[in-house]
Amino acid sequence: MAVRRQPLAAVLTVAFLAFGAWWCAPGFADSAPIQRSSAPPWSDPAHHGPLELLLGRVAGALAGRPVSVRCEDPAGWRGLTDDADGELGFVPVDVGPGGSIASDASVVELSPAVCGPLQTFASASGKPTKCSVRSETTKTVWVTRRVTVHEVVAGASSSSRDHVVVRQRTLRVKRTVKRTVTSSPGPCFVGGEPRAGDNAFWSAYADTATALLAVAHETIHLTQDRSGTLLLPPSQAESEAQCVGMQRMAYVAEQLGDTDDDAEAIAQYAYDDIYPNSKGTVYWSAACVPGGALDRRQPGARAWP
Ligand SMILES: [Zn+2]
Predict the structure, then answer these.
(1) Ligand 1 mean position, distance from CA 218 (Å)
(2) pLDDT at 5
(3) Which residues surround ligand 1, an ion (CB under 5 A)?
(4) In whole angstroms, what is the distance from residue 106 CA to residue 126 CA?
(5) 124 C-alpha vs ligand 1 centroid, how far in Å?
(6) What residues form DSSP beta bridges with 69?
């Protein structure tokens, strides 16, 4: 019997923000583990597309065994789910007689809404989650100027006349200079606040963060659904997948070529802006806090989640 888990639904928030000078800019040290392509990520009917293979390696590293990830096209996705617009992904589980799992789960199915943003993200040599901030500074500097001065020199005696002498003088004068400073591209979500970006930017950012979380979330289900164990109740399975998934998001983003500071910022955004929306559902848990029962960070990890 194939069991469908509670669908991981898209819960998005779009912050209404307007900033002055900002733009998306390629980040330093970002990399693109897959090539930019006009072909959608579900183009290979055998599910060996570049993004699928990359995500398969990432999920396999987190699950600790070989697994595969499949990106479904819109029609295929509608055939797999009753809620094609809301459902983001699932892990098929084979449950045998007596309710125990018959074989290790080994496949992650992902919706077009997840694979699309992930392909954009993984193939970008400068990650679209980063931005530069432009600011103007005023500085007072001393400048050296050569000036010509006319000096009246008094006559040597009462009978001689005053006369004018032309001299060159070096003067040090104060100047106020305005400078426009452009920060190098960096994380856009810093200390729980957006640094820059308009509504369209944050809408795309939310899509990317949600897609990264969906991969991490489904990967946690792979670790839960092992042969011979009983299927966990939804409240336990989903709250663990969502909370521990957020703690693995930075790793997923880094494997897709992001720098560690931005990867951590996206996970922070997911915890601050996406997670609270699931309060009251099986995905949310009060134990998903630093030091809580669902804190499964690697030893020595500084940041939460
Ligand atoms: Zn789930």
Answers:
(1) 6
(2) 58
(3) 5, 8, 238, 241
(4) 32
(5) 28
(6) 108
